[in-house]
């Protein structure tokens, strides 16, 4: 059977080709996870996973007296069968909730709208529109509190110029192949002075993952580099810009005052990778089996919701700010420029801006 490293080696010159092949390989592995004997082993792993997490959460709650807040409780109710996602999204939501949003907004790459629904409720958003490439997200997005949903590509937004007062995006922009085109489209649909707030992986992310760290510690540098490249394919991530790289890209696209802040420490990423360990053995994929088990047993589901809330609350909180040199992700805040720049660096007035 092919593996992802082979896929990457065979398509190194074209990441999009590698991603397409990766999806085919993982789908093949996932189908195998529903066949004997892989299915039985996957169910065994799911059971052991629940036991380990429950014991860990019990110890944390007893010793650290952790009480999940509203964000962690709500995300736990969504991601109880994939606790790593509750951890990941709690960190990002915490960063996004530190900003203020007014007027009409858009969520770029909203998916099913579950995380955005929490943001809408806790930030008191009255008019947030969902945008996603997946048409099947329409119904669930509106059900989660979005005003409306548009099926389109971020690189070609189906909205008139200057439609929105702000835009948010949660770890999506790095998945867009043509970054300058996407940023230009986002600027186009924002009103002058409109705010764009988004999260994205930092360059340090690539060398902070559990697999890369383990292989490096074993002295297998070549394997570690191959794992890093393979991770890019699996995550479908095209861009890992530095803070200066993001400032330059945003300014060239027509945004001013980009502020880059660090989120997601290496410790938090390690915990995320441990919770998501199954992704390295897709033949034994058990998240779908765990979901089925928890859906069937309401009491076990309640336990896993509580466990997920405790874990995400304990590992998701950061006692002090994370520096840019030690962050595996960024939250970036910028505003659409009110006036275009002339080639001499001075500002020119835009028609209709009243400036």
Helices, by number, come to 14
Strand % is 5-15%
* Average pLDDT rating: 90
The fold-level CATH name is: Rossmann fold
Number of strands: 7
Characterize the main sheet.
7 strands, mixed
Rg is: 21 Å
The CATH fourth-level homologous superfamily: Vaccinia Virus protein VP39
Strand order of the largest sheet: 3-2-1-4-5-7-6
**CATH architecture classification name:** 3-Layer(aba) Sandwich
Helix-strand topology string: HHHHHEHEHEEHEHHHEHHHE
Entry summary:
This protein has 355 residues and is α/β, with parallel strands linked by helices. Helix content is 50%, strand content 15%. Helix 8 (179-189) links the parallel strand 4 (164-170) and strand 5.
Provide structural commentary.
With 355 residues, the chain is of the alpha/beta class. The chain has 14 helices and seven strands. A seven-stranded mixed sheet has the order 3-2-1-4-5-7-6, sandwiched between helices. The radius of gyration is 21 Å and the shape is globular. The termini are far apart. The model is unreliable at 1-13 and 343-355 (pLDDT under 50).
């Amino acid at each position: 059977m092919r593996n992802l490293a082979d896929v990457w080696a065979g398509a190194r010159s074209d990441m999009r080709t590698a991603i397409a092949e990766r999806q085919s390989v993982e789908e093949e592995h996932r189908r195998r996870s529903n066949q004997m004997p892989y299915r039985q082993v996957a169910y065994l792993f799911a059971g052991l996973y629940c036991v380990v997490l429950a014991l860990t959460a019990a110890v944390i709650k007893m010793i650290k007296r952790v009480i999940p807040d509203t964000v962690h409780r709500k995300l736990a109710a969504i991601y109880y069968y994939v606790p790593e996602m509750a951890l990941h999204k709690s960190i990002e939501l915490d960063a996004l909730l530190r900003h203020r949003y007014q007027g009409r907004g858009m969520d770029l790459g909203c998916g099913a709208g579950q995380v955005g629904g929490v943001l809408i409720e806790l930030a008191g958003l009255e008019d947030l529109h969902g945008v996603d490439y997946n048409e099947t997200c329409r119904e669930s997005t509106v059900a989660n509190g979005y005003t409306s949903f548009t099926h389109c590509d971020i690189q070609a937004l189906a909205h008139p110029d200057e439609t929105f007062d702000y835009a948010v995006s949660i770890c999506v922009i790095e998945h867009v192949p043509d970054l300058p085109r996407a940023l230009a489209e986002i600027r186009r649909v924002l009103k002058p002075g409109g705010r764009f707030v988004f999260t994205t992986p930092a360059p340090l992310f690539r060398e902070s993952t559990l697999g890369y760290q383990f292989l490096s510690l074993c002295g297998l540098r070549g394997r570690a580099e191959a794992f890093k490249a393979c991770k890019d394919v699996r995550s479908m991530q095209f861009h890992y810009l530095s803070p200066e790289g993001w400032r330059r890209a945003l300014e060239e696209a027509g945004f001013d005052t980009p502020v880059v802040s660090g989120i997601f420490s290496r410790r938090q990423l390690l915990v995320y990778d441990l919770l998501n360990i199954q992704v390295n053995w897709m033949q034994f994929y058990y998240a779908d089996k765990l979901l089925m088990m928890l859906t069937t047993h309401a009491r076990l589901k309640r336990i896993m919701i509580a466990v997920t809330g405790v874990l995400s609350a304990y590992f998701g909180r950061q006692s002090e700010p994370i520096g840019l040199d030690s962050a595996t992700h960024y939250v970036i805040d910028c505003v659409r420029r009110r006036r275009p720049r002339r080639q001499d660096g001075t500002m020119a007035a835009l028609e209709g801006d009243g400036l």
